[in-house]
């Protein structure tokens, strides 16, 4: 299981108390040490943080919990990486440094800029490296909220995206999102991020070479080991599912091992390749049905099915109901 720095929960306890709830009880339920909260030197299992934020939103009755928590955080939660970013030559260089070294904060996160999606705009994207059956809408909104604050530190306080995209439906009043981000917001897009003017990347920063090099040197000794799961057959299958090419031979090639070696490895783990793919499809289906409003045909495609009817039969086998009924069941409120 991958980890994330304790600074990812900076401001958590204060926010929960402000909302009239008990932060210590929430942390205990998530099996998170209170001493790790806000501590940049502590590591917390990523899945526990994802679950904690969802539970906190339900318990406090604040569907915008992630966005609220972002107001308690900024570039300082990145530690030395924040120093490396601020001492870069330009905003573009700073964001490239964050992308390259974000594993020192959490190997699970990706936060990167595509500088050339269009002639006038660049695109920022936030996502998890691996999909989770656990809901993580609050974490996604926290991530975008913190990203917005970091952009305003690097560029200027007036920075506003041109459009924000979220991979899930609105968790509350859509107008509240527009007020928060200061721009149009599109929901249920299958990705999290925002478009902004490319010229922002060219804005100069301090260009303090000595500080920048010292920070980079420190970062090389600070990396969190990447979860072995990221290099596992399961991770390779997850990455390749949307391409529709998930044969044993193709996944083995991705892992640079012989197909027979992959079969032996899975047998030693008490499973088969076919069972592995089926289990991952089931988990991904649960995530996509519960956490997005994507059309069923698109979900079938993301799971690597060429026909929606095949997905429907699989869904009935996994959950005992059609995709539509499974979606409704998964979205029913659960007891905390």
Tally of domains: 2
Coarse structural class: alpha+beta
What summary fits the major beta sheet? Answer: 5 strands, mixed
- SSE order in H/E notation? EHHEHHHHEEHEHEEHHHHHHHH
Rg for CA atoms: 21 Å
The averaged pLDDT comes out at 89
- The first-to-last residue Cα distance is 23 Å
Taking pLDDT < 50 over at least 5 consecutive residues as the criterion, the unreliable ranges are none
Question: Can you tell me about this structure?
Answer:
The protein is an alpha+beta fold. It contains 16 helices and 7 strands. Helix 5 (80-86) runs antiparallel to helix 6 (91-101) and helix 10 packs across helix 13. The longest helix has 19 residues, at 273-291.
Furnish the topology, listing elements before pairings:
Layout: E1 3-5, H1 12-18, H2 23-29, E2 43-45, H3 46-60, H4 65-70, H5 80-86, H6 91-101, E3 109-114, E4 121-128, H7 137-154, E5 163-165, H8 174-181, E6 185-186, E7 192-197, H9 209-220, H10 233-240, H11 248-254, H12 259-268, H13 273-291, H14 296-302, H15 308-319, H16 323-330
Parallel strand pairs: 5-6
Antiparallel strand pairs: 1-2, 3-4, 4-7, 5-7
Helix pairs in contact: 5-6, 5-9, 10-13, 11-12, 14-15
